Amino acid sequence: MSGWMLIDVALFAILLCSGIAIAKIRQLFAVAMLSGIFSLTSACIFVMQDAVDVAFTEAAVGAGMTTVLLLGALALTRTREKLTPTARSVPALLVALTTGALLVHASGDLPAFGIEDSPVQTHPVTERYLVSSVEEIGVPNVVTSVLASYRGYDTFGEVVVIFTAAVAVLMLLGQRAPREVRERAAPMRDRQRVLRVIAKLLIPFILLFGLYVQFHGDYGPGGGFQAGVIFAAGVVLYALVFGLDAARAAVPMRALRPLLAAGVLLYGGVGVATLLLGGAFLDYDLLAAEDPVAGQHLGILLVELGVGITVTSAMIMLFYGFAGRGIGRGVGRS
């Protein structure tokens, strides 16, 4: 067994142990931490499979923002899971085992792992994406070509889903906690001088890296989804160290609300512009009629920027919503 195979086996073993622990542990804080470990391990597996773009998203969303939001949600509820009666657990277990058995049975029809003549390797679309995309789109990162150009309409739908989900969650969360309740945590924050110094050093580099991932996604791993979460993580770190009110003053909600919609409008506006120019929806070639490749670059740049704006705004607003309601509530519950 090669060294790389040993690493794969170790990572999958960590996933298995984390999953079993999540199912058995009743302390919700431990479950949130283990979920972050599960996501980070999944990101490592994606890197091993050369899916760096997916690894970026999994690490930023799964291990980063999702963990923070889970901790915020814990402040609104009890810290220990309520025991489920056996009469209800057994049917759920049977459904899970049946579904797993069906999936294992269906996996027998899949091609063997790593074979050269698998459908994904021999299908004409694969050659089109890997070979022709460089000439048609002019973008070295094939993932960006597929997501932002070849299936740009689908990606637009994903952005609309993010926008709709953010609006729905914020409506469910309602109003934030009163100011006097939020300020109860201020004495504790005042003692975090070491964290404040480290955060001041890290946050500018996090934001700079987010901009790099945003505008370098054409040439390397990255894009609007990954950059949006990374940029939002910088703001969340600022809020965790310096306080929610300080973060709201630096990045106010009144600025995030229009930005949440502006990203979607920017993406859809590019498609409307190509329609007005006489082409199909999101046909970037028409943005620079004399040079279709330049039009592709411009179109991808604009739609990826729209994705980044919407994702950043959605993540920060969701954090504000959970953190604003959570402070002063749920502490000490069990």
TrEMBL record:
The record's principal subcellular location, in a coarse class, is membrane
Boundaries of every Na+/H+ antiporter MnhB subunit-related protein domain copy: 194-316
MrpA C-terminal/MbhE domain: from which residue to which, for each copy? Answer: 113-178
Keyword match Cell membrane: yes
Residue ranges of the TM segments: 6-23, 28-48, 54-77, 89-108, 155-173, 194-213, 225-247, 259-281, 301-323
Print the keywords alphabetically.
Cell membrane, Membrane, Transmembrane, Transmembrane helix
* All residue ranges annotated as the MrpA C-terminal/MbhD domain in the record: 14-77
So which domain of life are we looking at? Bacteria
Membrane topology note: Multi-pass membrane protein
A Pfam family of this chain = MbhD
Compartments annotated for it: namely: Cell membrane
Q: Which family does it belong to?
A: Belongs to the CPA3 antiporters (TC 2.A.63) subunit B family.
Indicate what this protein is called per its UniProt record: Na(+)/H(+) antiporter subunit B
Classification from the root reads: Bacteria, Pseudomonadati, Pseudomonadota, Gammaproteobacteria, Nevskiales
